[in-house]
Amino acid sequence: HVQLVESGGGSVESGGSLRLSCAHSGFSTTSYCMGWFRQAPGKEREEVVAIGSDGTTHYADSVKGRFTISRNNVKNTVYLQMNSLKSDDTALYYCAAGGTWYPYWGQGTQVTVS
Prior knowledge:
globular, 4-stranded antiparallel beta sheet, 0% helix, mainly beta, 52% strand
């Protein structure tokens, strides 16, 4: 049974930092591509960053240099370190697992930057 659970969201002032965690079960971290997505009110969901099973990463231009994805294969957890947060980063953040497409999703964690 595949399960993904995000945590670490919250409210922070502009310029601050947060670290999101995605604890997953039912598969190993290197079995799938893992991605972080976000959706702001009234906007479409967008991919923030993805990490392939081989460790290669792809960041959205809007977060390059500010966000960093990492994973702990022992803890089956993927992290998203977010620095220099801006109000535009306010959204519900989801982690997902898959490959060409993402069939597995967490419930999301809210990030609010004021």
